[in-house]
Amino acid sequence: MARKEPIGAGAVSSQVALARFFNVCRQHVREVNAAVRLDPEGPWPWEHIWAVFGFAPETDREIEELQEPLLRPKAIQHATGYNARELRGFAADPRSRPANFPHAISLTKRVTRYRASELRAYLAGEPLPTYPILKPRRTNQSTDPKTVSKSRANSPNSTGGNDILAAIASNNAPPVEEDRK
Question: Quick one: where's region Disordered (predicted)?
Fold first, then answer.
């Protein structure tokens, strides 16, 4: 079957469509967007949505499965016979869930969803589907003391202190304190 568009092409173009995918009411789309760190305004490319969950699908089957709307816990309850309390327990402690049971996806503190493809596999007694993991991006920032920029040498790093490599590069290394006994 010939592909008309490259893998992952397309986007969720409206809040209504995004609400349908996350299976939330339209009023809660912005809350879910903020919680999963999607842009507040669309369109939302599928690649961005999948990246939130750490996936990088490669085949048509994977794309189709990852574009299916997520399921509410009620659907899982009806299909599996587990009650809401048991599902919350499985979500809170994944080790307590039965083997091959669908993984809970926490969208917000109070909103949990499940993948339809995982439910189908569980009900059929098959292994859960797996998807290629998104590879971490490489950063282009150099950590070589000889090439650290002066602007970076004077800026605090994420821990609030000065960047040690930049200080070494500029010969302003902080004094080393010796252990006192």
Answer: 130-181
Phi, psi of 133 (to 5 degrees): -85, 140
- Residue 148, domain extent: 138-175
User: Is residue 76, in this structure, part of any structural domain at all?
Assistant: yes
pTM over 0.85: no
Distance in angstroms (rounded) separating the CA atoms of residues 93 and 4: 42
Angle at 29 between CA 27 and CA 33, to 5 degrees: 145
Torsion from C-alpha of 102, 103, 108, 109, nearest 10 degrees: 100
- Are 76 and 26 part of one and the same domain? yes
Q: Would 100 be classed as within a structural domain? A: yes
Q: Which two tokens stand for residue 53?
A: 């969950």
Please, are residues 104 and 75 in contact by the beta-carbon 8 Å criterion? Answer: no
What are 35-61's pLDDT values in tens digits?
Answer: 888 888 878 899 888 888 888 898 999
